[in-house]
């Protein structure tokens, strides 16, 4: 063996298998542990190449799924099974109470409501006219009230006390009539707007007027015109009570109640 061959043989002994000089370990990590038995690397490994499954030094390994592989048939995004929509809208609400499964159809104000409310309004106008006529004939009304307050044979009171009592009675009657006139006008307005409670109040007031009709027939006032207006008021009130109690009126007030309950009124 020559001297050149001895030097070459010494260099080969100083290099481990894999071609790394100086006895350094290879630049890639060892093969991953936990390899299943029987798995073979494809093809013979060449000197200087990394084991199967590892990238050469200086290169990134292939991207892997950080979440792991999902079992076969399982949705990796956690969606609902077929037929179930997590964003589905809730079922539509059922119909309004008393109207079945569907919402009621739009209804116009029936003729019975128009005529009934109009009858109450006409009665109010007659009441206002009667109050004006009474004020214009104050002295005559005061004399009539004095005559009604005086009893046969006297009751031991002076004439001044009788006059004072008659005047107070007349003033109280007019003030009470004006107050009731304003309140009834308010109730008529709400009844026209479809408020059922206002219709009930008009029924109550109309019933009181009808109950007082026999009393008006017995004692007529000093002014025939005012007495005639009173009888017309009674007839108009009766018509208003009946018209607002008919079936078309009931259906419309029930429809308006549904509108107010659903915020559509």
Features of this protein?
265 residues; mainly alpha; 54% helix; 0% strand
What report would you give on this structure?
- The relative contact order is 0.10.
- The protein is built from eight helices and no strands.
- α2 (111-136) packs antiparallel against α4 (159-192) and α3 packs across α4 (159-192).
- The chain is mainly alpha-helical.
- Helices cover 54% and strands 0% of the residues.
- It is elongated.
- Mean pLDDT is 73; it is low at 7-23, 34-41 and 89-96.
- The longest helix has 34 residues, at 159-192.
Radius of gyration: 53 Å
Shape: elongated
Termini separation comes to: 117 Å
Q: What percentage of residues falls in helices of 4 or more residues?
A: 40-55%
Low-confidence region ranges: 7-23, 34-41, 89-96
Arithmetic mean pLDDT: 73
In N-to-C order, the SSE pattern is HHHHHHHH
**What structural class do helix, strand and pairing data support?**
mainly alpha
Total of DSSP H or I helical runs spanning 4+ residues: 8
DSSP summary, beta strand count: 0
> What fraction of the residues are assigned to beta strands by DSSP?
under 5%
Most strands sheet: none
Keywords: Membrane, Transmembrane, Transmembrane helix
């Amino acid at each position: 063996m020559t001297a050149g061959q001895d030097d070459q043989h010494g260099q080969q002994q100083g290099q481990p298998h894999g071609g790394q000089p100086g006895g350094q370990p290879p630049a890639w990590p060892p093969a991953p542990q936990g390899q299943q038995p029987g798995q073979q690397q494809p093809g013979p490994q060449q000197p200087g190449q990394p084991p199967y499954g590892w990238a050469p030094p200086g290169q990134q390994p292939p991207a892997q799924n950080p979440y792991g592989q999902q079992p076969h048939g399982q949705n990796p995004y956690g969606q609902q099974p077929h037929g179930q929509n997590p964003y589905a809208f809730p079922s539509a609400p059922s119909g309004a109470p008393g109207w079945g499964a569907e919402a009621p159809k739009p209804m116009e104000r029936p003729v019975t409501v128009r005529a009934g409310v109009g009858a109450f309004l006409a009665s109010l106008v007659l009441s206002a006219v009667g109050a004006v006529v009474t004020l214009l004939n104050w002295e005559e009304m005061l004399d009539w009230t004095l005559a009604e307050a005086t009893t046969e044979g006297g009751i031991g009171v002076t004439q001044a006390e009788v006059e004072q009592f008659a005047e107070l009675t007349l003033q109280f009657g007019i003030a009470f009539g004006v107050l009731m006139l304003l309140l009834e006008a308010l109730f008529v307005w709400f009844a026209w707007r479809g408020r059922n409670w206002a219709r009930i109040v008009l029924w109550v007031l109309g019933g009181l007027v009808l109950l007082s009709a026999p009393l008006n027939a017995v004692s007529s006032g000093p002014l025939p015109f005012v007495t005639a207006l009173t009888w017309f008021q009674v007839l108009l009130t009766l018509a208003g009570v009946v018209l607002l109690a008919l079936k078309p009126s009931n259906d419309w007030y029930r429809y308006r109640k549904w509108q107010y309950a659903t915020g559509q009124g």
